[in-house]
Amino acid sequence: MIITIGGLPGTGTTTISKLLSEKYGLSHVCAGFIFRDMAKENNMTLQEFSNYAEKNSGVDNEIDRRQVEAAKSGNLILEGRLAGWILKKNDMVPDLSIWLKADPMVRCKRISEREHENVDLALEKMLLREASEKKRYKEIYNIEIDDLSIYDLVIESSKWGATGVFNIIEKAIK
C-alpha cells in the first residue's frame, strides 16, 4: 500500500503520517525531513536553503528521486507537499492520496509551538517559506500547489484534529 499525504506547513501531515505508519506498519518517508537534512548538510537555515533551492533545481530533483525510489518498494506513507504530484508525474498511482489543510493562523500557532518561537515570527517565516515553495513548484514542475484535483481526500485538520483526521483516513483505507 502506498499513501501520499500532503499539506502546507502546520496542517498535521507529519503527525498523521506517523500515526498511519504505526497503525499499518508502513515506512514513513518525508520530503520535509529530506529537505531539512539537506539544509543542515549545507549549513543553511530552512529559509536560506529555500532561497538556494529556488535557484538550484537539483535540490528538488534529489528530493523527488529519493521519494520515487522509496515508493518503488511500496508499503509506505510518502509525506510531502508534492508527494502525490511526484508519483503522478512518474506514472505511479498511490492507493490513497490525501491533502490536509488548515486555517493559516491555526497552522502558524502549531508551527510556533513546534519551533518554540513567537507567533509573529512564525507567521513571517511560514509565509516566506510558502511563497518560496509556490514559486519553485510553478517554475520547476508547472504545478499550482493550490490545485487539489489529484487528491482522493482533502481534510480540514483544524476542524477535526489529529484523532478525527486519523479516523477519517482509516475509514477511507477500509
Write the SSE topology.
Blueprint: E1 2-7, H1 13-24, E2 27-30, H2 31-41, H3 46-55, H4 57-72, E3 76-79, H5 83-89, E4 96-101, H6 104-115, H7 119-141, E5 153-156, H8 157-173
Parallel strand pairs: 1-3, 1-4, 2-3, 4-5
Catalytic activity: CMP + ATP = CDP + ADP; dCMP + ATP = dCDP + ADP
Subcellular location: Cytoplasm
Pfam family, one: Cytidylate_kin2
Describe the overall structure.
With 174 residues, the protein is an alpha/beta fold. It has one domain (2-173): P-loop containing nucleotide triphosphate hydrolases (Rossmann fold). It is built from eight helices and five strands, in the order βαβαααβαβααβα. A five-stranded parallel beta sheet has the order 2-3-1-4-5, with helices on both faces. α3 (46-55) packs parallel to α7 (119-141). The longest helix has 23 residues, at 119-141. It is globular, with a radius of gyration of 15 Å. The chain starts with a strand and ends with a helix. 34% of the residues are buried. The mean pLDDT is 92.
- The best one-word shape is globular
Query: What is the CATH topology?
Result: Rossmann fold
Task: Walk across the major sheet and give the strand order.
Answer: 2-3-1-4-5
The amount of helix comes to 55-70%
> Number of helix segments?
8
Overall tally of domains? 1
Q: How is the biggest beta sheet arranged?
A: 5 strands, parallel
Residue ranges: pLDDT <50 for 5 or more in a row? none
Under the CATH scheme, which class?
Answer: Alpha Beta
How would you name the CATH homologous superfamily?
A: P-loop containing nucleotide triphosphate hydrolases
CATH A-level architecture: 3-Layer(aba) Sandwich
Radius of gyration: 15 Å
Average pLDDT: 92
How many beta strands in the DSSP annotation?
Answer: 5
Give the helix/strand class: alpha/beta
What proportion strand? 5-15%
EC number: 2.7.4.25
InterPro entries: Cyt_kin_arch, Cytidylate_kinase_dom, P-loop_NTPase
GO cellular component, one term: cytoplasm
GO biological process, one term: pyrimidine nucleotide metabolic process
